[in-house]
Amino acid sequence: MALKLMYITNRPEIACIAQEAGVDRIFVDMEYIGKSDRQGGMNTVQCRHTVEDVAELRGHITKSELMVRVNPIHNATDRYSSSEEEIDAVIDAGADVVMLPYFKTAAEVKRFTDCVGGRATVFLLVETPEAAECLDAILEIDGIDEIHIGLNDMSLALGKKFMFELLCDGTVERICRKCRDKGITYGFGGIAALGKGMLPCEHVIMEHYRLGSQRAILSRSFCNCDIVTDIGEIKRIFETGLKEIREYEAYCACHPEEWEANRVQTAEKILGIAQGQKK
Predict the structure, then answer these.
(1) How far is 148 from 277, CA to CA, in rounded Å?
(2) How do 215-218 and 146-149 pair as beta strands?
C-alpha cells in the first residue's frame, strides 16, 4: 500500500497544487503551546496556523483530506481556550483528521478521543518518551485511528544528535510493532524528494516499507514555499517529486529482498551523520 503523504501549508494556492499532484492530506498546523520552548534554536517548522485557515482551506480541498494538528492537551487560560473548545472549533471548521501532539499519558489521550467523539479521524503523534513508555495502555483506549511517530521531539528528549537515530536504536521499530499488533495504522517522520535529504530519501522510504509504515510527512525540504515563490516552479516540484516518490515506492514494494540490506546501509549512514554532528 502506498504511503499516505501529508504536506503542511495554510495557503490555498499551494494546497490546491499539492492535492492535484497527489498529496493525500493537507496539513494545517495550529500547535504552538510549549513548542518554541522545546525546539527553540532549532531549524524546525513552527507555523501558528489558525482555525480561520482551516475554514479557508475547507473551501478548496476536495480531493485530499484536511488534517489539523491542534495544541497539546490544555485547560483554558487568559491567553487561549481549552483543548475541548479548540478541537470543537477545528472540527466545525471542516477538519477531516485531528492530530494530538506532545502527550505523555493515557489520560490525555482519553480526554482527546472523548472530545473528538467520532466526528473526525483521531491521529496521535507519539513524540515523547513517556508516551512511548505507556503506549500499551494508550492503545487500549477506544477511538484511536492512527499513530504517527514524531522524530524531532522524541530524539531531543532522548539526547540524540540526529533524529533518524531512532531508526537505529529500536525505538521506531518497537512502536511500529505495537501498533501493528493492535491493528492500528502508523507512520513516522518526514521524507524529502528523491535524492535529497541529509539521509537520502530513498533509504527512508524503503525503511517505511520494511516497517509496514503507511504515513509520512513531506518535509519542508521537499518544497519550501518560503524560498521557492514561483507558482509554476512549485507546481513542477510537486508533480515531479510525487511521481518520483510513487515510482520508487512501487520499486520498494516489489523488492522486499532488498529491505534488510537497506536497513543495514541506512543504520551505517545514520550513525555516521550522528557522529559527525557530535564533533
Answers:
(1) 26
(2) unpaired
Tell me the domain boundaries of the chain. Answer: 4-278
CA 109, CA 31: separation in Å to the nearest integer? 16
**C-alpha–C-alpha distance, residues 184 and 204, integer Å:** 21
Strand partners for 27: 8, 67
The torsion defined by the Cα of 62, 246, 202 and 99, in degrees rounded to 10, comes to 20
* 263's grid cell: 536497513
CA dihedral (45, 46, 51, 55) positive or negative = negative
- Cα 104–chain centre separation: 17
Q: Which CATH architecture has domain 4-278?
A: Alpha-Beta Barrel (3.20)
C-alpha–C-alpha distance, residues 81 and 18, integer Å: 31
* CB of 33 closer than 8 Å to CB of 41: no
CA distance 199 to 28: 26
* Residue corresponding to grid cell 544528535: 161
* pLDDT tens for each residue of 108-156: 999 999 999 999 999 999 999 999 999 999 999 999 999 999 999 999 9
Residue 99 belongs to what H/E stretch? strand 97-100
- What band does 48 get if pLDDT is binned at 50, 70 and 90? confident
